[in-house]
Task: structure prediction
Amino acid sequence: MDLSLPPVAPVPSPSGGLTRHGVSYALRSGFRPLLLDLHVPAGAGPFPVVVWLHGGAFRAGDRRYLPDTVRPGAVFEALVAAGVAVATVDYRLSGEAVFPAPLDDVTAALGYLRSYAGELGLDVDRLGVWGESAGATLGALAALTTDAVAAAVCWYPPTDLAALGHDGPDSPITRLLGGPAAELPEAAALASPARRVAPGAPPFLLVHGVRDEQVPFAQSEALHERLRAAGARSVLVPVEGAGHCFAGYPDVPGLVAQAVAFLSRELAARPAG
Result:
């Protein structure tokens, strides 16, 4: 039976807020416990919350670490400083289980935050996702397949797995799906945000390096176009000269600030009435 555990006790963080390390949000039978860390601003809540999803080609990565092109902790610190809580989430990797396992885990994390929102000081009616690379794919899928997400930031996401053409036996897509996308078209479509867009999608901010050779810029273009066609609000930001993870771009802190401003605006409390 799949279970979770109540939140661990918080500890003070350097920012003056509270942090809960290693919360077991899902105990999957036969798998390692799935953990999240929660950083909450100082002061009286409830606070809007953003779920951060790491990249790593679906087969690597850790909730606590950002891409090498981003200063350690910068994303989490910037959100908390803006008055937004952030939950950093681990999910099952492709060496552990194939799709839809990682999406199931992200959905479970969203459900956990909703279940314990009162104890955690969160306003889960103002919940966003922010992911990079593989994590951006999962964040986009969560935003498109649940009603829990009010805004999404996706950094250089794979959005149409079949169109990537990565069908080698050890490719990240093959490992994620359990076989080549060309041989598993239904699974590839279910794992592709560009194929899951429907009316009612939340606002998206898509940020992608124009010179990205691992995940081409066209992947974000495809999702952006489908979101706009469905009537959703979508902002596509091409990052000139940048490769994957914004390699070669001189102002990654500016991109962090842009994402935080977008989420702060979209998750702001709305006037009553």
User: Anything to note?
Assistant: The longest strand covers residues 122-132. The mean pLDDT is 96.
